[in-house]
Amino acid sequence: MNLDQLRIWANDLRLSSGSSDQDDILINEIKQEDKNVDEDVTNEFSTDMVFNSRQSLIDWIQNTGRNLGYIIVIKRSETSIIGKSPRLLFQCDRGGTYRSQKTSTKVTGTKRIDCPFRVKGVKMRTGDDWMIRVVCGTHNHAPASYMEGHPYPGRLSESEIQLMVHLSTKNVKPRDILTSLRKRNPDNMSTIGTIYNARHKFRTAEKAGKTQMQVVMSFLQREGYIFESQTNAVTNELEDLFFAHPRSLEQWRAFPHVLLIDATYKTNRYRMPLLEIVGVTATNMTFCIAFVFMHSEKVFNYTWALRCLQSTMHGCTGPRVIVTDRELALMKASTQVFPDAKKLLCRWHIYRSILSKCRPSITDNKSWNAFYKMWNMLLESETENAYVCKLADLEVVLQNFPGIINYLKDVWLTPYKEMFVSAWTDRYLHFGNQTTKKVATNTLVNPSPLVFVESDSLHSREPSRNSYSFGGPDLKDREDISTRANTNTFEFVELDIFQFQEPARHSCSSIYNYSVHAYVRQFPFILHPYIMHVQDVKPDGNCGFRAIAVCLGLHEDAWATIRHCLIEELHTFRTQYVTIFGSEDQWTRVYNSLNFFALDRGAPIEHWMTMPDMGLLIASKFNVILHVLSAAQSFTYLPLRSIPPPAYQHVAISIGYVNNNHYVQVALTDGCPMPPIMPQWVHFRHDCAAAWATPYVE
């Protein structure tokens, strides 16, 4: 049996059930044969080259060894003394013998096998020139087949360490850091362990001897966070910590209507629950408001956390709707601190509880699907009478499962139906938020600003807003169905799209035929195959109305007609739009934006098209389905009051928002994915208009 076969055999044994005495004997035999291997590389290291610096000498020797499958390291460095030049002595990394510094009974191994290879570098008397002399060019072991995972060539260079530190402060995952390093340097031999070790070394140095709590408090104070804490009266240990970023609080004061509150776990080494408080904008985008680490989930702790949140409001309007799971302590604390807010229960948590309790009893898939369908119909009951009828239908479906119907009534329906059934919850403006699952998603996608609590590092990052797909299951649970109404296809990023106004342009030149390819790249990637063409319009401040005119088959110069029609829509249904916009002042602002008809100059910024304010106006006035596309967020607007024609007669138009200051007309093919429907349409549409969405949500 030759050496290679012996190695393969030994490796198979080590991968089997476990180590044995025979395995150890076999491994020792391989090591002994390794010692008997002689590899002479004298010729490869023999050279008359003169190196112009010490570093160039080191690089040449190590690169030559690496190409041969050996790691060459510096054994000793001798400085200049009288009568002697500076010298460097190199050896194989497997040279020498291991000498333990402490006594131990544990059986250990070592890579050192007293390899005799030696090379000496000598500095010449003139300048900084160096030469090489081979002392012993023989290795007593075979070369390595590959260098990946070897600790010496896998070390990070100074530039790589700087990149690792930069990416770590941006909360980039170690595996992504390693990928970035290998893209920049294909010869990089580092492993994931190298990245973790380098990060740990950096964070240890960053702490500068401070305790974890000292690091946390100094970070909060340095970055301007608003924070409160509670300590144990006896031990003076921190028990509860509330913190919020000032920008998050500004956003909350602007959108105080809905709060989503939920706790998550396993986020820190101290096993403290993390309570996350999330707000929702009028366009259904979520943003983090505050975070609370609590040592216990009791009424006192929740009340303290919500009092801290309340203290940051400074007299502003309180929340109208609070969505939580069925955490009784949190529900009681919410009632105490915000008594005027309507309390809703998270439907997703209800579903998970029902799944765990009822699924084992209903083993037949057909029966389960019938129950699940009827349960959802019950939740979506639009009136109390409809609820009573749907409940009777549910009892018929579960007639063979009396225990389940009793569980549903006793645990959920009788005490809490007003908190999650549409017949009661739709009386309040919750913007479609009847689940706290977004809070958990927000924690995963958007880690909290204090990521160092989990990973012992200081990462300063302001909380951001995110938008997610509406009303759909998780991606992994979705069926791959091609449909125009695949609203779950879209996943969006942060931007202030609820302003959606055009910033100042440098000029209003009549030359406006920009590259449509540059425009296409600014739309969601999934729509690119469905875009037939993009038509640019004149960038004079009327571009949004020009794009709508083109979509309707008119010339873009008919922008004034579009403005007039939208003003007529706004006046005719003033009461409804005041309700949608939230105030008379907002209605007046939209009216003033539309009221511009000058032909001798471009429209000033206060008269530009704004979204989402004008989206429902356009869809309702012209009885069309309007898609508004952008890199940040895309929405679909449907008519508010009309009875829809048959689906094949629906007219869909699309405009795109590009460069953060310009609208263009976009032509999409049939069967393209449809952006999510604007949430305000769901709340403010007339009953007769409900069927507009039917073909797209089936």
TrEMBL record:
Pfam families: AFT (PF08731), MULE (PF10551). Gene3D superfamilies: 3.90.70.80. One of its GO terms (biological process) is positive regulation of transcription by RNA polymerase II. InterPro entries: AFT, MULE_transposase_dom, OTU_dom, Zinc_finger_SWIM. PROSITE patterns: OTU. Residues 532-669 form the OTU domain. One of its GO terms (molecular function) is DNA-binding transcription factor activity, RNA polymerase II-specific. PANTHER family: SWIM-TYPE DOMAIN-CONTAINING PROTEIN. This is Protein FAR-RED IMPAIRED RESPONSE 1-like protein.
